């Protein structure tokens, strides 16, 4: 699986799966520059389709349709998170200042 680019040192060090589980309160450490990488609070908006799907699943009569609605909501949430949520530098790594970055 392809890695995503670190917004600090621009090396592809952030695993894609790691971003999918990243919230504004969590962070992942870049293996190259040591910076802590996170997502902005606007990333919470990506949850909206799934929240709507949960609400919609309550009102449909059939379990099969409710399940389908939830799966679609979850997929849309993941797609928005992957496509539109940027990675941001939460805390710059010290390696950059010490000139130890192998860029
Ligand atoms: Zn980095």
Secondary structure: elements and pairs:
Layout lengths: L2 E3 L6 E4 H5 L7 E2 L6 E3 L9 H12 L3 H22 L3 E4 L3 H4 L5
Antiparallel strand pairs: 1-2, 3-4, 4-5
The chain binds zinc ion.
What can you tell me about this protein's structure?
42% of the residues lie in helices and 16% in strands. The radius of gyration is 17 Å and the shape is elongated. Strand 1 and strand 2 form a beta hairpin. It has a 3-stranded antiparallel sheet with strand order 3-4-5, with no helix packed on it. The protein has a two-stranded antiparallel ribbon with strand order 1-2. It has 2 domains: 58 residues; 43 residues. The model has no long low-confidence stretch (mean pLDDT 91). It is an alpha+beta fold. It contains 4 helices and 5 strands; from the N terminus they run E-E-H-E-E-H-H-E-H. It binds zinc ion (ZN). The site of zinc ion has 9 residues, from loops.
State the gist of this model.
This protein has helices at residues 16-20, 48-59, 63-84, 95-98; strands at residues 3-5, 12-15, 28-29, 36-38, 88-91.
Keywords:
alpha+beta, 103 residues, binds zinc ion, 42% helix, 3-stranded antiparallel beta sheet, 4 helices, 5 strands, single chain
């Amino acid at each position: 699986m392809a890695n995503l680019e670190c917004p600090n040192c621009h090396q592809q060090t952030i695993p894609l799966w790691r971003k999918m589980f990243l919230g504004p309160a969590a962070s992942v450490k870049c293996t190259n520059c040591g910076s802590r990488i996170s997502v902005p609070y606007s990333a919470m908006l990506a949850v909206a389709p799934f929240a709507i799907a949960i609400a919609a699943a309550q009102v449909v009569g059939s379990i099969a349709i409710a399940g389908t609605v939830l799966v679609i909501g979850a997929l849309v949430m993941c797609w928005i998170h992957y496509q539109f949520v940027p990675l941001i530098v939460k805390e710059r790594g010290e390696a950059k200042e010490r000139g130890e970055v192998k860029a």
